[in-house]
């Protein structure tokens, strides 16, 4: 069973994402702030990481940067969730190695399909 | 007998047996001290009770929030193909079991539904909209909009806007020209999103000012809403409300509405210099060659800022028709005018630089320095 980490500080969003991905059959781990997410990333292995950009303590970009600079974890797909589609933020994310951007508001089922695709790609 | 018991007995003795033997001033003072001591103790009890009650209320809110979030999260994870009504029917009894008459629970449920609705699209948003109506929360929203208090009205308008309750557009319309700037801004923003027939109808009747920051908000809403059918904003350029004209000019500029050219040109004679300046800017941006002569005619009627904008626009159009006029500006007393005119000449890609070199040989050393500055490709305008 593929393991996914969701890092999101909005409890409401976190719960919806957690429930949706669990329903899709994934093993889901959650972090409600950046620091917690960073610890989980450092200590665990995930098949995909879904992280909000704006979080307390540690931002999504820092988590992304850590993963993509780690020789073992760098192949883990990272999907960034953002409420703002600012060009420079998107560019920074892609430059750091983000695999995809998801803008709020988004379609939960579309997210589910994207997650499925990245996990499938990463499995090969 | 321990120490505290001795103290209490002594104090008790003072107020029971010995009080009548004290002089009046001491008696009064002792009674005041007694009153204050009782008041302080009561106050401490009151604070402790309030804190306990607030903590209890907060705990209850958190529990309800957790419960509501869990129900809503379960409600949202269905597939696009699932039937919306079936989903609602499945969860409706669970939600109905909650004490929805309790204002706190009701408010919490409304706000959580709205927050989810804001973050999701597709089936999720559809399910939430249906649920919102099924719980009659839309009727509560309507009541809020009709409330006398403007803050409650705003709350209602925001809810209607977030939940996309289109049938409330007409109800909201009457507040789009309200005396309260905050209320009319919310109403206008909501009306644009909710009106199915004419989202810009409020501009026809807007008599109150649309403040600058409010124009920015509306501009953002209009330019980022991809579902909106954009009309020709030229029809509001004759509005007696200058702020409506200004907003429409900004939108004409953004959407590059060439059909508004004639109306924009007419605004060169407008009484409001800000509108004239913006019109000139648009003429330059859209490179409306037909408006060149009109700009030239009004040039001397305006102040330096508009003159600079006209020179800039003439440069952008670069038809060559006003090259002599631009050259003559080198004799102006204002350096900014000279500089702008020189840049306008330079913009003519065919003859601009040659023309500047020609002027260079015929003018004063001060102007020559300015021309050298303009011709220097390393310096950006």
Biggest β-sheet strands, sense, barrel of chain A: 5 strands, parallel
The shape of chain B is: elongated
Integer count of domains of chain A: 1
What's the architecture of chain A in CATH terms? 3-Layer(aba) Sandwich
- Gyration radius from CA atoms of chain A, angstroms: 13 Å
Helix content of chain B: 55-70%
| Structure annotation, total helices of chain A | 5
Query: CATH top level of chain A?
Result: Alpha Beta
CATH fold title of chain A? Rossmann fold
Strand content of chain B: under 5%
User: Helices and strands of chain B, in N-to-C order?
Assistant: HHHHEHHHHHHHHHHHHHHHH
Number of helices of chain B: 20
Number of strands of chain B: 1
Low-confidence stretches of chain B: none
Largest sheet of chain B: none
Separation of termini of chain A?
15 Å
Backbone CA Rg of chain B? 36 Å
Order of helices and strands of chain A: EHEHEHEHEEH
């Amino acid at each position: 069973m593929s393991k996914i980490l969701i890092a999101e500080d909005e409890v409401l969003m976190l719960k919806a994402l957690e429930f949706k991905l669990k329903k899709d059959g994934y093993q889901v781990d959650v972090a409600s702030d950046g620091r917690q997410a960073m610890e989980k990333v450092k200590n665990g292995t995930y098949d995909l990481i879904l992280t909000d950009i704006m979080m307390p303590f540690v931002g999504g970009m820092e988590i992304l940067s850590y993963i993509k600079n780690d020789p073992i974890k760098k192949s883990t797909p990272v999907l960034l969730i953002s409420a703002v589609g600012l060009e420079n933020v998107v560019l920074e994310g892609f430059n750091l190695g983000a695999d995809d951007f998801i803008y709020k508001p988004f379609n939960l089922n579309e997210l589910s399909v994207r997650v499925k695709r990245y996990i499938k790609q990463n499995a090969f | 007998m321990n120490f505290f018991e001795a103290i209490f007995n002594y104090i008790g003795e003072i107020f029971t047996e010995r009080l009548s033997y004290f002089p009046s001033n001491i008696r009064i003072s002792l009674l005041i001290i007694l009153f204050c001591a009782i008041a302080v103790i009561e106050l401490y009890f009151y604070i402790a009770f309030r804190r306990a009650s607030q903590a209890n209320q907060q705990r209850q809110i958190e529990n309800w929030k957790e419960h509501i979030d869990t129900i809503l999260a379960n409600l949202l994870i269905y597939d696009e193909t699932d039937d919306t009504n079936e989903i609602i029917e499945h969860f409706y009894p669970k939600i109905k079991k909650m004490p929805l008459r309790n204002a706190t629970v009701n408010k919490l449920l409304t706000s959580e539904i709205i927050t989810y609705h804001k973050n999701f699209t597709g089936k999720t948003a559809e399910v939430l909209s249906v649920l919102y109506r099924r719980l009659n929360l839309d009727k509560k929203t309507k009541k809020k909009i009709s409330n006398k208090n403007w803050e409650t009205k705003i709350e209602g308008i925001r809810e209607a806007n977030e939940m996309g309750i289109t049938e409330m557009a007409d109800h909201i319309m009457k507040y789009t020209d309200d005396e309260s700037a905050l209320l009319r801004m919310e109403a206008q923003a909501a009306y644009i999103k909710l009106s199915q027939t004419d989202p810009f109808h409020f501009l026809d009747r807007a008599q109150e000012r649309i403040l600058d920051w409010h124009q920015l908000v509306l501009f953002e809403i209009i330019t980022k809403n991809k579902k909106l059918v954009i009309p020709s904003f030229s029809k509001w350029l004759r509005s007696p409300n200058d702020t409506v004209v200004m907003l429409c000019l900004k939108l004409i500029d953004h959407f590059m509405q060439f059909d508004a050219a004639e109306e924009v040109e007419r605004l060169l004679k407008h009484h409001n210099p800000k509108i004239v300046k913006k019109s000139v800017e648009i003429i330059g941006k859209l490179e409306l060659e037909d408006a060149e002569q009109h700009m030239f005619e009004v040039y001397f009627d305006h102040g330096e800022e508009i003159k600079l904008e006209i020179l800039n626009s003439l440069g952008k159009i670069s038809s060559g028709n006003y090259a002599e006029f631009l050259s003559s500006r080198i004799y102006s007393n204002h350096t900014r005018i000279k500089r702008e005119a020189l840049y306008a000449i330079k913009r003519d890609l065919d003859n601009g630089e040659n023309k500047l070199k020609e002027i260079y040989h015929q003018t004063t050393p001060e102007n020559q320095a300015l021309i050298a500055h303009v011709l220097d490709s390393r310096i950006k305008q």
